[in-house]
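R.M. (postdoc): so does anyone remember the format we settled on? I'll just put the structure tokens first.
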């Protein structure tokens, strides 16, 4: 015998198919007697409704589409975990797809997810074009964009305040007795670089700022530019180096190891982001821990509230606090 159908339930209960549908979807009032008969029939037949068919009729799939640049990027994986776990609390599952930074693939993903009747979209990116923003609005599917490198007019998001967090990090170094501090930042004029430079300058004062801007944000660039940084460190009697991410900090510390410079005895070093390698590398890196899981969790919760018409997605940017993880790469000098 095949799987029972809604017709079988209606026949056993002695009611119409529309009455069974109303009971299942709780869409319109049904008499207590009719409801009892339908529920009894469902139990006796072990009826399991076709969820796909129901979603097409009800326009409710309990699915959220998530488009990421690359799931291999560590922080994106943490964001996805927050989205997925909190989504499940609200009975929503996710459909995940990667764009690898290609606009055409983002468009294809949006079209694909729309055919799957997703009720909302989360875009996790490091850059997004105006054309994609237009397409997102045209779909009329509620969406949230999580982009750590850019801000978009009239689009609110969940993020950390990089300026404020860098200020707190540098301030912790000055309180530890470090009077001259070097900041190694990227040359790209994106939100992270510019905000962190402002936070650094607010903490040390522009007249005492030492900034080295380098190409790239990887550990290789941190190593390749370390010689220039060391020259500046010697000239300005600098005792601490702050890097705009953990990768640059690790590359810089590798150079120090290769050239007999001891961290933190000779030089304190801090990063930003708290990637896994920050707590594995020796000495363990002092850094700012960004709560990516929480950012994903808050984003999906806000999106689901919008889907359910309980609130706007985000009336303003939701700023979430980060924490300084003090480890072995820094020391107090007074």
């Amino acid at each position: 015998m095949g799987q029972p159908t809604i017709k079988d339930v209606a026949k056993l209960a002695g009611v119409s198919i529309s009455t069974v549908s109303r009971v299942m979807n709780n869409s319109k009032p049904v008499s207590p007697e009719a409801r009892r008969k339908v529920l009894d029939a469902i139990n006796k037949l072990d009826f399991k409704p076709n969820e796909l068919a129901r979603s097409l009729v009800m326009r409710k799939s309990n699915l959220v589409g998530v488009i990421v640049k690359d799931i291999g990027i560590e922080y994106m994986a943490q964001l996805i975990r927050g989205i997925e776990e909190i989504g499940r609390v609200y009975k929503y599952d996710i459909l995940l797809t990667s764009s690898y930074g290609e606009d055409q693939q983002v468009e294809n993903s949006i079209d694909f997810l729309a055919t799957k009747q997703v009720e909302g979209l989360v875009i996790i990116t490091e850059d997004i074009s105006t054309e994609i923003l237009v397409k997102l609005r045209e779909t009329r599917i509620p969406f949230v964009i999580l982009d750590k490198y850019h801000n978009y007019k009239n689009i609110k998001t969940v993020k950390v305040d990089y300026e404020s967090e860098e200020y707190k990090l540098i301030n912790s170094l000055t309180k530890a007795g470090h009077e001259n501090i070097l900041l190694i930042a990227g040359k790209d004029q994106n939100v992270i670089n510019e905000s962190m430079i402002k936070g650094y300058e607010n903490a040390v004062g522009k007249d005492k700022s030492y900034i080295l801007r380098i190409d790239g944000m990887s550990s290789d660039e941190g190593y390749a530019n370390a010689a220039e940084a060391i020259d500046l460190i010697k000239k300005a009697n600098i005792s601490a180096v702050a890097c705009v991410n953990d990768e640059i900090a690790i590359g810089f510390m590798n150079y120090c190891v290769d050239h007999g410079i001891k961290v933190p005895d000779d030089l304190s070093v801090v990063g930003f982001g708290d990637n896994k390698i920050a707590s594995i590398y020796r000495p363990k890196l002092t850094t700012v821990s960004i709560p990516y899981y929480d950012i994903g969790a808050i984003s999906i919760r806000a999106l689901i509230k919008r889907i359910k018409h309980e609130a706007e997605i985000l009336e303003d940017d939701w700023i979430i606090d980060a924490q300084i993880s003090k480890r072995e790469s820094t020391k107090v000098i007074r």
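R.M.: ...and that's the designed sequence above, right after the tokens. Also worth knowing: The first helix runs from residue 6 to 13. The first strand starts at residue 63 and ends at 68.
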